[in-house]
Amino acid sequence: MDLTTDYLGLRLRNPLVASASPLSQSVAGVQRLADAGIGAVVLPSLFEEQLRREADRDARLAEAGTDSFAESLSYLPPTADVEAGSSQYLSLLSRAVAAVDVPVIASLNGVTAAGWADHATAMQDAGAAAIELNIYYLPGDPEVSGREVEQRHLDILARVKSVVSVPVAVKLSPYFSSTGAVARRLAESGADGLVLFNRFMQPDIDPERLAVTSGVQLSSRAEARMPRSWIALLRERVTASLAATTGVEDAGDVAAYLLAGADVVMTASALLRHGPQHTGVLLAGLTDWMNRKGFTSVDQARGLLSVPCTSDGSAYERAGYLAAIQQATIRYGS
Fold it and tell me: Which of 50, 120, 218, 240 could cross-link with 269 by S-S, CB 3.0 to 4.6 Å?
């Protein structure tokens, strides 16, 4: 059975990729994922806010002068290990690359184009097989137009692509007025891959505590429908690699994403729930499914149920909507 696949021009031993999570925030964690059989690993993101904090700290230290260096450190707020700066991140990256024989992908998370180039170059120099741009931006200002939001993504991509030679993927949110158009513009502007989709961790309100709360909820299988639909629509319409993420729990979810047209299937929630060893369960289940369906390679299954480029994508989505309404009427109608 041939599970090998291509993603971002990289040859992977299988289409299963560990997306950024606490499992990959240490060399030991990356090793456990690789030993479990994962095809590639995405490190947790280096955040723009961390880089700003680091730059502000350096500026304050420079202003204080060398004589007060030690004392000035006490004026800075403590920083948790998970918020370590770029030097710690690059150390993790280089050590992880040396420790495993699968591609290690670095991740940058931010919302502006400023300051990304140097850090992307440093990631490449540290051995990153590729860079994932996790552009986590949900505009809260009603004066910001959709065109401005789209241009921000293009500017960040252009800035990073101008200084690195390794592949660059963009992790998108689904919240655009025309997601397909944004995807095509990014691919035409040099994005080697698109990761669909980012999950926004919006705050919520606790009515008992009268407080705003925040937290992370692991994804559910139901959330896979949106990225799967867009991957099926984009498969024959963009040149960039397509990575699926969100809603992966078992091998059936992996197979469904491949049939839609995903080059790789990323997962974090399933591995956090069940541990890195769940990788083997997913791969064994995928192999069993391929045997039952008569596929001898992942390539034979990939995109089998994608939307042909000659079809009307809008009509495809509309037909799915109408079919769902009809089924709901039959099932729940009086």
Answer: 218
DSSP 332: H
- Average pLDDT of the segment spanning 148-175: 93
Residue 132 bridge partners (DSSP): 107, 169
261 phi-psi bin (left φ>0, alpha ψ -120 to 50, beta other): left
Give domain status of residue 76, yes or no. yes
pLDDT at 126: 97
51 bridge partner residues: none
Domain of residue 204 covers 5-308
Residue 322: inside a domain? no
Residue 291: CB atoms within 10 Å: 11
What's the rounded Cα separation, in Å, for the pair 99 and 144? 44
Nearest to 160 by CA among 178, 186, 182: 186
Look up tokens 């592949």; give the residue: 167
pLDDT digits (tens, 9 = 90+) for 45-101: 998 766 655 555 444 444 444 443 333 333 334 444 434 578 899 999 999 999 999
Residue 317, domain member (yes or no):
no
pTM comes to 0.84
Q: What is the mean pLDDT of the chain?
A: 85
Once rounded to an integer, what is the mean pLDDT over residues 304-332? 66
CA separation for the pair 264, 15 (Å, rounded): 4
CA dist 105 and 236 (Å) reads 25
Could you tell me the CATH number of the domain that includes residue 265? 3.20.20.70
Domain count, the chain: 1
Answer whether 96's CB lies under 8 Å from 30's CB: yes
Using the 8-state DSSP alphabet, how is residue 190 labeled? T
Strand-pair category, 264-267 with 16-18: parallel
Q: Which two tokens stand for residue 137?
A: 């931006």
Is the four-CA dihedral 273, 275, 276, 282 of positive or negative sign?
negative
